[in-house]
Each structure stands twice: as structure tokens, then as C-alpha cells.
Amino acid sequence: xxxxxxxxxxxxxxxxxxxxxxxxxxxxxxxxxxxxxxxxxxxxxxxxxxxxxxxxxxxxxxxxxxxxxxxxxxxxxxxxxxxxxxxxxxxxxxxxxxxxxxxxxxxxxxxxxxxxxxxxxxxxxxxxxxxxxxxxxxxxxxxxxxxxxxxxxxxxxxxxxxxxxxxxxxxxxxxxxxxxxxxxxxxxxxxxxxxxxxxxxxxxxxxxxxxxxxxxxxxxxxxxxxxxxxxxxxxxxxxxxxxxxxxxxxxxxxxxxxxxxxxxxxxxxxxxxxxxxxxxxxxxxxxxxxxxxxxxxxxxxxxxxxxxxxxxxxxxxxxxxxxxxxxxxxxxxxxxxxxxxxxxxxxxxxxx
Length: 352
Hints:
The protein is an alpha/beta fold. The chain has 15 helices and twelve strands.
């Protein structure tokens, strides 16, 4: 396989699953964590390694090391692997997705931005989602009429904060996720609920038109639910571990034990909450965005710019959502091609 984003949490879990399935790693792609990358190279012996910064090439213990997005695309095009696992973060993960699809490869997709920004122009039949929520929906699907698909959210770092404190939340505060450790951007996205809105948009592209919603489940043991038209509801329970969806992406006939079962007697109780627009202002545009999913490129670009401004201490935490909403309401042009997606992304970034 080709693994994009090898040193992030999904990449690390993917390599663990690859060992269980004896899958060889042809290409490793990572950002700046060279220390962990060198450990991965020693264990998995890839043919090619690509990193983000050419200045770090000298520190990588491999004879075939390249840098930059162009070399990520080239490595995909030159690879013999049938499978590409895309666990890159942000819009920069889109071009590798498009490249892999153009080469006829299967994609295990954790890069949300590929579908959020460009879902209408991507062959979704070649994509197996490895977000736990989309995996849960896929796992629950039956040949029965569906009324609504529901995914769950943890609520992020500020789910229990007094509302009047949110404006003063710091970057360090956003990283205190109540349930697990993730990368910086996705943890901020969890705190704003942008992450969940993106996952709803992904679900819309993956499973087609229909009703989609999200609720907070504080223990992150239920990842997805489906309301069927007959009045019944099914739920997917599993411990929060990415190795399960990754295993199915690598082998749909997967029959190995990956996780311990959820023991409901030990859990004792579950808590569900509605997603409150006062705490998560981004939820104001959720329904409109699902009706106009091509506008995902606008929301994504605005979000990435706003997050960087927050990291740079140019804006407060609540302004992230305000900037996204303001940009979404002002911008009305929808992309009609892949080229439009990249053009609109550039335009949005330059306008904020």
C-alpha cells in the first residue's frame, strides 16, 4: 500500500493493522515528525519516502527520499500498489486523492477535505471511508428503506464550558479533548463542531441524498445510527479505535478480532445531547450546506484560514465559526469542475 500521513494517529494505526494482515508498505508519506518516520522506515522498509520539507531530507534514514506535494503525486503514480490510504490533514490531501483515482487505485480515505471540497467530482465507488462514523453507517446499511442517518459527536473540549467563557478559550484549551488525543487541527475542528459538519457532508457524498444529522454521545461508544422507515433504529457500538475501520478498508472480508467488545454492564449508562447552536454556532448553516453540498469548498477554505488566524492569536476562538458563516453567506459561486474547486479555494483564502 501507499500510506499518506504515516506519523499521525490514523497512519500509526494503519501500520499496526498492516502488520496483522502482512501488507507491504511501498510508500510512506509524512510531514515533519522525522524521528517517528525513521522508526517506521526501519520496521516497514518502504521503497520510497516523501516528506513535506526538503531541508529535512538529510535526516531521513532512507536512500529514496523526496519532498513536496508534487513528489507525493509522483510516488502515487509510480507505485504498483492497488491501495492508497490517505490520512493527510487539510485541503492538501485533495490532489493525492485525485491522483490515486486517476491511476485506478482504491482509496481508504481519512482526508475529510477531499470529499468536503470536491465530492461532486470524485468517483466515490473507489473510496472506502475510515472515519469511524462513516464506517459505522456503512456497517449498519441493510437493504431496507432509510429514514435518516445519524452520526455522533463527542462535543469536543468545550462541551461542558460555560458559554461566556468560550470567547476567551486558548489554543491549549482546544487541545484538551475529553475522549482521546488527535492532531491540532482536527481537535480544534472538534471543539467548533466543524469536524462533525464535514462528516455529515462526507456522508451525503458517500451515501447519497437523504436526511443526515448528528448528536452528542459523550462516551464515544456509539459512532453511527440509522433510522429505518419502519420505525426501527440500529446503532453501531465499538470502542473508539481506528484500527477497526482501517482493517475493513484493507480487507472487506476481514474476520480477525480487532477490538474488545463493548461491555454495556461496565459502561452502565450513556448520555446523549443535542448540538446547541449557541455553543457551536457553525450548526446554523448545517442544513443549508447539506442542501448545497458543492459549497463545501468555501466552508473548508474559510475554516483553514480562520484556524490559522486563531493559532496566530489574530482572532478569538468564537471568531472561527463567525468567519466561516460570514464567508459562506457572502460567497454564492458553486464549482462546476475540479479546476473550479482549486480556483475557489484560492480565492477564498486570499479574501479573508
